[in-house]
Every structure is written in structure tokens, then in C-alpha cells.
Write a structure and sequence with these properties.
Elements lengths: L5 H30 L30 H39 L17 H50 L5 H32 L6 E4 H8 L8 E5 L3 E4 L1 H17 L7 E8 L2 E8 L9 H4 L18 H11 L3 E6 L5 E8 L9
Parallel strand pairs: 2-4
Antiparallel strand pairs: 1-3, 4-5, 5-7, 6-7
Amino acid sequence: MPRRTIRLRLTTLYGGLFLVSGIALLAIMYTLSKTVFQAPRPPGDGPVSIPLAPLGLPPSHTEAPVPEALVALAIMTVVSIGLGWLVAGRILRPLRVMTATTRLISEDNLHRRLAVQGPGDELKDLGDTIDGLLARLEAAFEAQKRFVANASHELRTPLTLERAMLEVALADPDATAETLRATCEEVLAAGEHQERLIDALLTLARSQQGVHHRVPVDLAQVTATALRRPMELPVSAGLKFAPISGDPRLIAQLVTNLLDNAQHHNIPGGSVSVSTSRIPGYAVFSVTNTGPVIPAAEIPRLLQPFQRMGASRTGDRSGLGLSIVAAIAKAHYAMLDARPGPSGGLTVNVIFPERPNHSTVD
């Protein structure tokens, strides 16, 4: 069975429309020749025919030459099908070019674009849409490559450090129990850093998969629980009832990461303020610190994995904290608003919808 291409269907449509129109025209002409062009019969005389020469019909005939018209209609139908085939091919030529170019694009040459030329019609809109999709895919592939490279580096560094410390300790012939014990403690510390990094990577991966099970969560209660941990800097809290629906573990991780980020990226003697509130249809979690000055242009970069603004004084320096926050916010259809403070530091607002529209609330 031959393939029913769009060109064939358009050609069939053009030919069918012409055939139906021609048949309708013949029917109208035949009806008119039987009714309009035959004069009324005078009393007592035979029928009087009106000359049909102005209409291109022989004067001696009172009816349209139906057989000849049918032959002309058949010829014109064939001609219209041929012209329809050519016109359809001309119209669909950009589609063939886009199809051929798209087949040549793979993950190795995502930089290629269709670059459809011509007027701003639907076909050019389609080509531009595909080019936009390719640009997003290229950015996603590049981000994935950077993520894999950075994760490999972050995981390899503590392993290399542990190996070097163990080799130095074993190569020392005068090593004592105290020096070996100190080396083991350093190896354990490096292993703990590696565990935190792996946990952060797992949390990031889980949050990027979306939230499949939702339960009612109060942001104020989650924040109060997180504030029970020992804090390095004073924290002022204004917590009001802020109900949402989401994954409690991921929400707790988001709050903890933002509090840790506000503590670690701060100035000596600085402070942190945190609040939860409720506006119609939304619940808001906000945290502000008195850290160093951060250029506004740097904030989008800091939300990507393994990106840092200088070295933190304490805690995890993997650069995954804010990227995990961004992923969790996205999984809950929340808006993440991060902006620098007027005299330094960072203000982060996470605005959660109370009832997400894009997922099923259990």
C-alpha cells in the first residue's frame, strides 16, 4: 500500500474540490438552459427559443451540450490534479528541507539549526520553534556534561586525599599509634565529606524527578524544627501558619539548605532572619542574611550545581545547596525569588502554591 503523504492528500483535495465545483457548475448550467433560456410559448404557436450565442452555445440548440462539457470537465480535472501536485510540492518544500536537516542532527551536533527562510508563515514558525527546542536541548546537554564532570571531580578529590594520607602514613617507618590514629581521623573526616556530597547528589536527583506523593505540610512547623539545631549565628524568626501540599522530606531539606547557606555565607557577627507567611492561594518561606555583597548577575549562576561565591567558612562546600533548593522548589511548582540585599547578603523567597494545579494532591 503506497504511503499517503501530505502532498498526495493535498493533491487529492485540490482535484476533488475542482471536480465537485465543476459538476455543480454543469448542473446549474443545465438547469438554466431548461428553465431560463426557453421563452414562454405564445397562445396557439409552437415553442420559441431564445438564441444562446452570447453564452457560447450554438443558437440551434436549446440545451447545453452536456457530453462535450463532461469531456471538458474530465480534462480540467486531470489538469487541476497535476497543478495541485506541483503547488503542493512547492508549498511543502520547506517541510522536506526541515525533515532532511533534522535527521542529520544528533547529540554530537546540537549546535545545528534549521534556519528556515521565507515569509513569517506557519512553516517558518514551526522551524523557529524547532530551533528553540534544539537550543534548549543543547543547553541541557551542556549542563549535564558539566554536572558529570564536576561531580566526578568532587568525588575524586576526597578519594585522592584519603589515598595520599594512607600512603604517607604507611610509608613512614617511625609512625606511632598517635600519628596513625590522627591519619585515621583525617580519613574519616574526608569520608564524611564524601558521604554528605553523595547524599546531596541523591537529594538533587530525587527532587528533579518531581513529587509523586503529597501530604499537608506547615512551613512554620518545618522551620521551627530546623531552628532547633545549634546555630552559629543568631536567627530571628517570625513564623506564621503557612500550609502547603508536598513532600515533607524535600521541604525540610529546602528549609535546612537555605538556613545553612544563610549561616555559612555570612560575615562575622552577622545575623539571619527567617519568616513564614500566607497570602491568598500561596504560602511564603523567606530567609535573609547579612553576608557579603553579591552581584545580582551572579545569582542565576549560584542556583546551578557546583557553583560557589567564594569559600564558605564552615560546612559543605560542594556548591549543591542552592541548586537543591531550586530543584525542590521546581518540583513543588513554587517560585524561587533570590535577590541581593541593599548592603550585602541575600534574600530568598520561596512562594509555594497551596494547591498545585499540575499534579495530583493526595
